[in-house]
User: Which sequence fits this backbone?
C-alpha cells in the first residue's frame, strides 16, 4: 500500500507528464493530420498519440525507473512496482476531427491499488487530479454531486457504438431505449475519461461503459472515488476489483441510486454475444 506522501509524489510525476504533452497537443489540434486505422475503421491513431505516449513514457521512467508502463499505443514495457496506465489522447476521433473534447489520461497503481491519477483537457485548461489525499480540479478540491432521482439525471456514455452492436446485437438498441427513457438526458461527448472527470466535478450525474481497457478508466476511477462517487466494475455480469481491470462499468455521484442504469449495465455485461477482447499487452 502506498503512503500519502508516495501517492502525492506519483501524482506530481503524472501531472508533469500530462502538462508536458498537453501544449504540443493543443498546438497540433485543428491542424491537418493523417491517421491510421487500428482494430477497425472506428478505431484510429495519429502521430500525435504515439509521440505523446513516448514522451510520457520517457518522463515516467526517468523519474521512477522501478515502473511498469502500460500504454494504449505501445502496450506494456518494464516490470517495476509502480504500474502506469496511460492513454495519450482519449478521444482521438474528436482530436483528429477538430472537436474540442479529448484529454490525456495517466494513472499509477501500486500493489493493485490506484494511488494517483490525472486527466488533462488542454483545450479547456482543466486538470483533474487525485491522490490518496483527495480529488481536485486545477488544485481546487472537488466533490461530485448527483440528482437523487434517476429521471432527473444526466448520463454521459459512449454506449452504444459499433463494437457494442457487434457484441450484443439488437440488445444494444433496447438497452439504449431504456436509458433514454429513464434519464433526463443522455449525452456522448466522445471521451470516457472526460465522462468520469465531469462526473467527479459534479457536471453530470452518471456514466457507463462496455469493453473498456485500464488506460481508459484508471485515472477517472480514482478521481471519481476520491470525489465521493461510486464506480462499479463488471466482468461477465459480476463485480470485479480492482475495478480498473474490469471491461464494463457504471458509475454515479454521491448517494444517488439509479436502478435502470445498474440493471441495464449488469445485463449487458452478462449477456455479450461474443467474447470480450482485452487489448492489454503482457
Assistant:
Amino acid at each position: 500500500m502506498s503512503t500519502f506522501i508516495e501517492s502525492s509524489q506519483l501524482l506530481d510525476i503524472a501531472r508533469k507528464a500530462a502538462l508536458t504533452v498537453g501544449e504540443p497537443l493543443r498546438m497540433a489540434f485543428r491542424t491537418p493530420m493523417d491517421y491510421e486505422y487500428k482494430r477497425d475503421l472506428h478505431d484510429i491513431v495519429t502521430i500525435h498519440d504515439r509521440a505523446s505516449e513516448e514522451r510520457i513514457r520517457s518522463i515516467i521512467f526517468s523519474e521512477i525507473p522501478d515502473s511498469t508502463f502500460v500504454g494504449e499505443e505501445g502496450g506494456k514495457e518494464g516490470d517495476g512496482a509502480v504500474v502506469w496506465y496511460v492513454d495519450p489522447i482519449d478521444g482521438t476521433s474528436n482530436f483528429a476531427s477538430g472537436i474540442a473534447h479529448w484529454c490525456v489520461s495517466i494513472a499509477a497503481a501500486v500493489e493493485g491499488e490506484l494511488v494517483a491519477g490525472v486527466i488533462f483537457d488542454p483545450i479547456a485548461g482543466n486538470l483533474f487530479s487525485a491522490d490518496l489525499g483527495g480529488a481536485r480540479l486545477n488544485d481546487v478540491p472537488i466533490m461530485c454531486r448527483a440528482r437523487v432521482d434517476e429521471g432527473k439525471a444526466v448520463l454521459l456514455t459512449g454506449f452504444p457504438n459499433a463494437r457494442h452492436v457487434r457484441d450484443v446485437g439488437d440488445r444494444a438498441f433496447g438497452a439504449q431505449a431504456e436509458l433514454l427513457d429513464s434519464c433526463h438526458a443522455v449525452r456522448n461527448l466522445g471521451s470516457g475519461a472526460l465522462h468520469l472527470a465531469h462526473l467527479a466535478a459534479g457536471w453530470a450525474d452518471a456514466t457507463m461503459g462496455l469493453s473498456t481497457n485500464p488506460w481508459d478508466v484508471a485515472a477517472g476511477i480514482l478521481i471519481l472515488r476520491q470525489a465521493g462517487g461510486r464506480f462499479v466494475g463488471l466482468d461477465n455480469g459480476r463485480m470485479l476489483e480492482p475495478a480498473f481491470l474490469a471491461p464494463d462499468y457504471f458509475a454515479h455521484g454521491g448517494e444517488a441510486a439509479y436502478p435502470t442504469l445498474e440493471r441495464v449495465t449488469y445485463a449487458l455485461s452478462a449477456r455479450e454475444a461474443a467474447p470480450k477482447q482485452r487489448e492489454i499487452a503482457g
Summary: The helical segments are 4-28, 47-63, 92-97, 162-168, 171-182, 192-200, 214-226, 259-270.
